[in-house]
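Researcher: Quick test of sequence recovery. C-alpha cells follow.
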C-alpha cells in the first residue's frame, strides 16, 4: 500500500492556542500548528474546504524529524495537528506525536472525532489536549449530510475525557446546529461526561456550498444561555465583539480575560506541575479545570 500524501502538509503556522480553540489549555501561549489535506467528512459549510476537500500531491513532503525541529526552533510549547482532518493521516500523526512528546512538546489534536475506538485510543494515548467538533445532535444529518457518525464522535469525546484535556466546538450552522433543541442535546451529553468540559459555540459564515447568512449574534448568545444551563463553561466564537472571559464558578472572580485571541490569566493560581486538578481561583481557592504549564 502507498500513502500518496504521507508528510505532505498544507500549512505550518504559529497560532495562539485560543485559535484551536482551546481556552483552558496553556492559555496565552503560542502553538506550532500543522495542517494536512483531506477529510473523512464532506460538510457543505466547511470553513476550510480549500484544503479539506482537495489534495495537492505535488506539495513538498516534510520529514517528521524536520517538523519537530521546526517546532522547537520556534520555541512553541505545543504542536497542533489541525486545519483539516489530521486523523486521515494516521500513520504520520502517530509517529509525529511520539517524536514531539519525546522532544518535550505538548501535543494538540483538532479533530472531527469520526474514528472507531481502536485508532481513537491510539491517538488519544499520544494527545495532551484535543478540541473535537461535535457538529450536530441529529444522527441523520451526521450520516446523510455530513458523511459522519454521531455515535463515533460521542464515543471519541468520552474516550478523550478519560485520557487528556478536552474541549468541544459546535459551529452554529443553519439547519445543522442553530436551534435550542440541538444545543440542549449537545450540552446535556457533555454534562453527562463532565460538566466542566468547555463548549465553544462558533458563528457560521457562508463558505464552500453554503450561502445562508452568517449567524446572528443574538441567536448565538441565546444558544449559549441554553448550554450554560447544563455546562460550567460555554464560550461564543467567530464574533470578536462578544466577550469570552472565564469566571470562577464559586465566587465569580475573573480567571482569564480575553479579547479576540489576546488573553490575560489574571485570577488563577497554578498547581504542582500545572496539573489539571490543582489549578485554582486566587480569590477563593476553588479548583478550576485549566492546564497552565
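Model:
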Amino acid at each position: 500500500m502507498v500513502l500518496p500524501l504521507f508528510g505532505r502538509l498544507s500549512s505550518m503556522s504559529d497560532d495562539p492556542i485560543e485559535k484551536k480553540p482551546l481556552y483552558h489549555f496553556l492559555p496565552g501561549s503560542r502553538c506550532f500548528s500543522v495542517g494536512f489535506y483531506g477529510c473523512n467528512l464532506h460538510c457543505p459549510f466547511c470553513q476550510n474546504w480549500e484544503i479539506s476537500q482537495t489534495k495537492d500531491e505535488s506539495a513538498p513532503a516534510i520529514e517528521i524529524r524536520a517538523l519537530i525541529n521546526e517546532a522547537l526552533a520556534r520555541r512553541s510549547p505545543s504542536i497542533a495537528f489541525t486545519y483539516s482532518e489530521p486523523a486521515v493521516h494516521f500513520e504520520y500523526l502517530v509517529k509525529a506525536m511520539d517524536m514531539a512528546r519525546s522532544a518535550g512538546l505538548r501535543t494538540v489534536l483538532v479533530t472531527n472525532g469520526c474514528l472507531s475506538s481502536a485508532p481513537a485510543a491510539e491517538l488519544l494515548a499520544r494527545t495532551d489536549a484535543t478540541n473535537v467538533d461535535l457538529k450536530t445532535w441529529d444522527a441523520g444529518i451526521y450520516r446523510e449530510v455530513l458523511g459522519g457518525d454521531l455515535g463515533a464522535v460521542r464515543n471519541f469525546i468520552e474516550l478523550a475525557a478519560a485520557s487528556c484535556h478536552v474541549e468541544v466546538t459546535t459551529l452554529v450552522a443553519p439547519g445543522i446546529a442553530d436551534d435550542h433543541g440541538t444545543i440542549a442535546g449537545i450540552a446535556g451529553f457533555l454534562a453527562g461526561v463532565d460538566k466542566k468540559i468547555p463548549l465553544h459555540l462558533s458563528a457560521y459564515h457562508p463558505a464552500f456550498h453554503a450561502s445562508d447568512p452568517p449567524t446572528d449574534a443574538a441567536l448565538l448568545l441565546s444558544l449559549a444561555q441554553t448550554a450554560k444551563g447544563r455546562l460550567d463553561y460555554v464560550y461564543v466564537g467567530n464574533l470578536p465583539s462578544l466577550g469570552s472571559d472565564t469566571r470562577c464558578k464559586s465566587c465569580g472572580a475573573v480567571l482569564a480575560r480575553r479579547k479576540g485571541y489576546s488573553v490575560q490569566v489574571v485570577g488563577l493560581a497554578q498547581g504542582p506541575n500545572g496539573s489539571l486538578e490543582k489549578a485554582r481561583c486566587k480569590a477563593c481557592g476553588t479548583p478550576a479545570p485549566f492546564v497552565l504549564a
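Residues 18 and 261 are 6 Å apart (CA to CA).
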